[in-house]
């Protein structure tokens, strides 16, 4: 089956999760489009994703960055993070039928997490960057890939068991709307030493320090009952992904690597919350 037909089939099977991002009406799949009750139409792409975003994507993250992220994530840089998140999901005491990754980029986090789960689930990835979703649809089968804006998302209210939001901007009002009563939000945020070996090479010393206190504060204003798991380790960088490591972040834009990085620091908080 062609990628576009596969995507159409997956969306049709799960169409109760989707709504029109313009009028919030129900949608149905018709051949190669998703159409709402007011006839707003969104086309499936041959490459196997659906575009719900009617403007042109912002250019902060481009194809090269998403390809680099794909290589690095597939090489295992975040494996411990994926394992921890899969463990958290597997321990939940309700059936997890669906998982939505908001700001999924090139999709490897969603792919690796859903693959490790002891239960099967429908995985949907959403990102405003078309290049991210193109890369996701290129590499990962069996998941639904959507271009959309978190501020105008194409999903029904209170349908999602798990929301992932990994190293991406949040929209807490929207997260609350999307989560069903028992659902969990799992957000990953950087801590002060995250990617410090890169930051040391590209930033002035005084810019290098970072704290996620403000992000946590903002989170707590919307979700008060939260649990935090801190994950810290140094990942040995395989020589063949060193270049990709450098290009996986906009921090290094137009800058040369001054010295090779042997080990890179992962220092992250995984925050879990319910409505
Ligand atoms: C640092 S990247 C992280 C991507 C991916 N989660 C990862 O860790 O590889 C941040 C992502 O958030 C996406 N993003 C930013 N604003 C967004 C919005 N309003 N709606 C959806 N995605 C957004 C960007 O396009 C980008 O892919
Ligand atoms: Zn509509």
TrEMBL record:
The keyword Metal-binding applies. Coiled coil: none annotated. GO terms for biological process: methylation. S-adenosyl-L-methionine binds at residues 78, 106-107, 194. Pfam families: Methyltransf_31 (PF13847), Zn_ribbon_RlmA (PF21302). The keyword Cell cycle does not apply. InterPro entries: 23S_rRNA_MeTrnsfrase_RlmA, Methyltranfer_dom, RlmA_N, rRNA_m1G-MeTrfase_A_prd, SAM-dependent_MTases_sf. Gene3D superfamilies: Vaccinia Virus protein VP39. Keywords: Metal-binding, Methyltransferase, S-adenosyl-L-methionine, Transferase, Zinc. Residues 98-220 form the Methyltransferase domain. Zn(2+) binds at residues 20, 23, 36, 40. Residues 18-51 form the 23S rRNA (guanine(745)-N(1))-methyltransferase N-terminal domain. One of its GO terms (molecular function) is metal ion binding. This is 23S rRNA (Guanine745-N1)-methyltransferase.
